[in-house]
Amino acid sequence: MGHSAHGDNYITAEKGLMSWFTTLDHKRIGILYFVSVMSFFLIGGIAALLLRAELFSYNAAPNVGEIFKNGDVYNQVLTYHGAIMVFMVIIPGIPAILGNFFLPLQIGAKDVAFPKLNLLSWYCLMAGAALAVTTMFTTRIDTGWTFYTPYSIRTQTAVSMMVVAAFIMGMSSILTGLNFIVTVHKLRAPGMTMHRMPLFVWALYSTAIIQVLATPVLAITLLLLAAERTFGVGIFDPKLGGDPVLFQHFFWFYSHPAVYIMILPAMGIVSELISTFSRKVIFGYTAIAYSSLGIAAVSFFVWGHHMYVSGQSELAGTVFSFLTMLVGVPTAIKMFNWIATMYKGSIQFASPMLYAMGFIFLFAIGGVTGIILATLALDVHFHDTYFVVAHFHYVMVGGTLMAIMGGFYYWFPKMFGKMYNEFAAQLSFVFIFIGFNVTFFPQFILGSMGMPRRYFDYIPAYQPLNRISTVGSWLIAIGFLIALYTIIDGLINGKKAPNNPWGAKTLEWQTTSPPPVLNFDHEPVVTAGPYEYK
Amino acid sequence: MLLWIIKNQLFKVLVGQAEAQSFMPAQGSEIAKSVDSLYSFLLIVSLIACVIVIGGMIFFAIKYKRKSDNDKTAYISHDTRLEILWSVIPLVIFLFVFAWGWVIYHEMRTMPKDALEIQVMGQQWNWTAEYKNGVKSGEIVIPVNRDVKLILSSSDVIHSLYIPTFRIKQDAVPGRYTALSLKAEGTGEFHIFCTEFCGTSHSGMMTKLRVLSQADFDKWLAEEGDSASLPLAERGKKLFNIKCTACHYANEDKPKIGPSLQHLFGQENHPVESGVIKVVDENYIRESILYPQAQIAKGYGPRSAMTAFQGQLSEKEVTSLIEFIKTLK
User: Fold this and answer.
1) Which residues of B touch A332 (CB under 8 A)?
2) I need a labelling partner for B290 at 20 to 30 A (CA). Which of B41, B100, B231, B245 fits?
3) Residue of B232, B227, B149, B217 whose CA lies nearest to B183
4) What is the structure's pLDDT at A151?
């Protein structure tokens, strides 16, 4: 191990499947995450397609068959869709795949600070995921990904097993976060000051802080829930003198910051993409870097905006609404900075840039509807309707997923040393972008009309818009199939990639494609910021 | 001055236009109108914001499209004045919206004095409204133009009572009380949904809000109040319509969430998960209502989705239900 001949890259340095499962190389671990997270995404995506197919018609509509035989099956599928997408795709997505691969490269390090811990993180995710998938073959779980008590205490489904799975996956998230924080503080190359770090690294760093501070709260909450189910402790169950709303406070204390675990790294990628493909220094570097930290900090104090109608006091609701408005400001700043970066640039419409622009487009809509939902009186009407469903898909799918795709196409040449078919990549963007809007925009209208979420059946008035939405989901599916083709085709038939195909300035493009095992042949010395296009 | 009037008028027209296009349900109360005005304002601001951001992006993308690989770009690292400007403007707008939303929310949450109080109990998967004179109803029936306070609770898991036409919603939490107030401006029937996920038939937990004139309401309440003198089976039928129809058909021989109860009483060799019941009698039905897990109809196991009604119904109510089920021939 470790004795690679000169000229070998990280892929060819060692052979055999076992060399992958025992690797300590952050780049190989990134690839392991890539393969596993994409498999989870496939499962979660199929669940989504089934849900949309069921909702194509209301249940008593003439001439339609049923996808699910009853509400129970539907509820289970929606729970797996949510839980898989949140815990197994979007949370690990960017940090564990692209972060693992590029954080050390971008700061000129040989690896992360704790390579063995890094591999352990992957095994934690896999162990948790295996347990979560196992529940599908038992009594399954039907609580929704939020596990609200007391329903989650009463239901006879495999809640305990599932929360243990989420607990283990949480460990993975904590360890990854810890690893990144130490790596950023300790392993920067000579001359790589904090203020010369690429914005993707800043975003990962802010994310890592949330991962380390917030995830333990979820872990404890989930253990309490399992204890409640197993031993009848009586913390959440009103029958035993517990308070079911307390669970919501605990849950959202983690899960709201988790929203920023999902979106901050995406914003980091977009900063990289916009700068590179405008060939221009990022506008307001300091503002973007510190707004990430600002968002991370404020994100811990807004959880109650999920609970305006839960029975929490009017005062609490008011304070949470106010704080939520504040968190909107740094987000708005980032949007303006990206657009200002494009001003007087030299903009290349390569597929990663299309995804970055898609991100801004969809995130703008997700953002303004977020303000609408943060407004007390409006949220009373929109809470738990399809308006919320549309909003968080615009932010998480329109935001995070767009950024993953953009980032993946951007770094693909570096990761595999090959170029993909640009036309196919752009075609996948067109399908995903249009399909996304066709799927989710009608859901804003459905929510305005009053259609509640997590509904197996609905009143006939909601049918036309649901049909449009379902058709949109097929377009998204086609888009991702094309993307899958692009990747496989690129891996097999792709032309050899140059070291720096986009003319980017950050450090990862200074080394070979794909990088050698220790990332750089000579330790890089940094003398300027990450976006010096002069 | 003139400018102010123009702006003001323009604003009204715009908000009116947005309201017409906002796809919100009909407005059932003053509160609904205030909510819609705020929403329309935000829709307009959102639209402007999206046009600036997305439009700006597309404009720059086209204008500064790469012409050659040697394009020179400007080096603009930041602009403090501009950055302060685009931080402060959103902040001011957000705080304004926050305050506006708070004012309406406060109005929603301030419970009127001398309101007509109705207890509303959520249960998997039905709502029961109970009036001061003891009348129970599966629909919430209220008089028009009168302050009404709904006091919510739940007997099992968390539910949420949502009346889109009135733009109001509140969780019904087991073990405590929450409340909603409303004042209907017109008579009619409006949808009520459950908006907190509560299991198998969450989406079936719908009912109606019926707004009647004061005279009709008084008449309805009195008639319902007389139900104590009705025959047992009639009372059972009323109760059945509140508590049981979410999951059971009474007059159709097909399954819903649970089995049909038609032809049930007196059936011989009735199949259950653990074997057969020789004859379906009063005791079997009583047990099935109070302890649904004891014997589960064939095909509905291994555990019944039904909630136990032990402690939820009075002796008299159980008897009346049994009497009603006996009549389902």
Assistant:
1) 86-87, 90
2) B231
3) B149
4) 93
